[in-house]
Amino acid sequence: MEPNFMRKRMAQIRKHLGPVMKKMNLEALCVDEGWRYVVDFQTDRSFSPIALQFTHRNRTDDRRPSWSEVRILHGDYRKKKLGDTGWVHMRKWSERRLPIEADAEGRVNVEQMFAAIARKLQANKLATFRREPMKLASEVLADIFWEIDGRIPDLGVTRVAHEEFPDDERMQYEALTFIDHDGRRIHMCLGLGDGRGPIYADGEMIGHFHTEEFRSIAEYAVALSSGKQYTGFELRR
């Protein structure tokens, strides 16, 4: 449900940007981030890298957010290669905040503002986080991969059946995989949105890791591959 503080602004957005939103099959959605309101433009499968930032009601005494304080957000969404595996990872790498042009007294020409926003929406290709055959969704696994790429010769990326839902492809783990110094096939797995993931050796679970430990698990993976001792990580059952 949209915050009452944003209802008039959302109505204006839908009125003035309606034609371009209809052409691009976009809907406007207001997200309360606690310190700001962000209006995203999205379809059922994709979204625009362009969004709008509004002042949060907790940070102003005004009855509604001022147009002069609105910022156009331009997210940098790009795919980055995971070594030479053929896999890629996409995320928002950065975000630019562009002010709305105002006159010398801080007043905004609403028609010109919406025209500028419409041009931004049309000029930028829609992005998607939907599943693709060789796109790794997990930021944690991607960061671990880049941390150890070049240090484990056969490091790869794959998907592994979930032990509780073995026949459901949608529930598959994403995994980093390699052969350890004992010749075992290692899979370091993580489910979408999970805070911890299992580690398998030749299909047998040997423990779990937590996502906040990604640097330690990276060094543990290198130790598994090389046979060198590493005491900075302890497997959890």
Structure notes:
The mean pLDDT is 92. The longest helix has 14 residues. The two termini are 41 Å apart. This protein has 237 residues and is an alpha+beta fold. Strand 10 and strand 11 form a beta hairpin. It has five helices and eleven strands; from the N terminus they run H-H-E-E-E-E-E-H-E-H-E-E-E-E-E-H. Helix 4 packs across helix 5.
What features would you highlight for this structure?
237 residues, single chain, 22% helix, elongated, alpha+beta, 6-stranded mixed beta sheet
Task: Please describe the topology of this protein.
Layout: H1 7-16, H2 18-23, E1 27-32, E2 36-42, E3 50-55, E4 71-81, E5 88-99, H3 110-123, E6 135-136, H4 139-148, E7 156-160, E8 173-179, E9 185-190, E10 196-201, E11 204-210, H5 214-226
Parallel strand pairs: 5-6
Antiparallel strand pairs: 1-2, 2-3, 3-4, 4-5, 7-8, 8-9, 9-10, 10-11
Overall pLDDT, averaged? 92
The largest sheet is:
6 strands, mixed
Class inferred from helices and paired strands: alpha+beta
- The count of helical stretches stands at 5
User: Which band does the percent of strand residues land in?
Assistant: 25-35%
Which range best describes the helical content: under 10%, 10-25%, 25-40%, 40-55%, 55-70% or over 70%? 10-25%
> SSE order, as H and E?
HHEEEEEHEHEEEEEH
Morphology call: elongated
Strand order of the largest sheet: 1-2-3-4-5-6
From the alpha carbons, calculate the radius of gyration and give it in angstroms.
23 Å
Could you give the count of β-strands? 11
What is the straight-line distance between the termini? 41 Å
Extract low-pLDDT stretches: none
